[in-house]
Amino acid sequence: MVPLDLWGRGYSDNPKELPHDTRLFCSAMLLALASSELCWTGSSRFALVGYSLGGGIAAEFMSFFPYLVSRLILIAPSGLVRTKHVSKFSKLLYSNGVLPEPLLEQIVKKRLKGQPSVVVALKETPNMTTETPTEQDTSINHERLLFDGNVGPPSEFAASDVVAFMSSIRHGPIHSQQPRWRVLREKLNVQKKANQQQKQGANIESAYVLIICGDDDPFVIRDEIFEDAREVLGLKNIELRSCSAGHELPMTNSTEVVEMIKTFLCAA
Fold first, then answer.
1. 3-class secondary structure, 46
2. Rounded to the nearest 5 degrees, what angle is found at the Cα of 208, between the Cα atoms of 60 and 50?
3. Using an 8 Å Cβ cutoff, are 154 and 165 in contact?
4. Alpha-carbon span 246 to 253, nearest angstrom
5. What does the CA dihedral 242, 240, 175, 22 come to, rounded to 10 degrees?
6. H or E stretch including 226?
7. With contact defined as beta carbons under 8 Å apart, do 90 and 226 qualify?
8. How does pLDDT run across 37-57, given as a tens digit for each residue?
9. Which of 102, 139, 153, 187 is the most exposed place for a label (fewest CB within 10 A)?
10. Predicted TM-score of the model (pTM)
């Protein structure tokens, strides 16, 4: 198993001059594979697991390198999150050129630490303070969505962490990735047809993608993700599962999630 630490997180360096987008994420994954002493290509293809933002990244990676990945497991994935859930304030906070970048970094850092900085920092900005309660109540909290592997945000952040985080929000595969997922569907269909021919016409019905969502996830809405995934990936390519949990389901329901993954991989 190779766990991947995204650049700009923890002790990983942050290439500030580059946007944290699919190109950078895929490069990090390829470098991680190349650094391993094990063979991860050819007949030694691997199953790829992604959680939250990692799910969106994993789906993008497989769409570009389908013959490296045998099965794809997405847990509460980004990528198909509908933009209607994002408040005007979040759009402003992660915009470019509207407010000074140092101010935005300061606000985001305080939000990541759980401090109520938003109203204080922007209370004199016209037409902006009314958005804050709406976002808290009904809109996606980007800070929570991108803390993959943590139930709550860390207490301290380096400046590079905040810059990397903001770049991931702006450029990462969070919303409107349907076109790329449709490319993945096409490549999955080609791969499935090739496998059928290789096995002398055997009917291979097992899915290539497992999507697991929490029933009570306020950020990655289960019914919306399932509906959109069926449309862009096709019913025969995916298996959909859910459990009674929120966005932190890999931690709160770890045994249940592991059993779902094991069942899926064993059926392949």
1. strand
2. 45
3. no
4. 9
5. 110
6. helix 222-233
7. no
8. 888 877 778 899 999 999 999
9. 102
10. 0.80
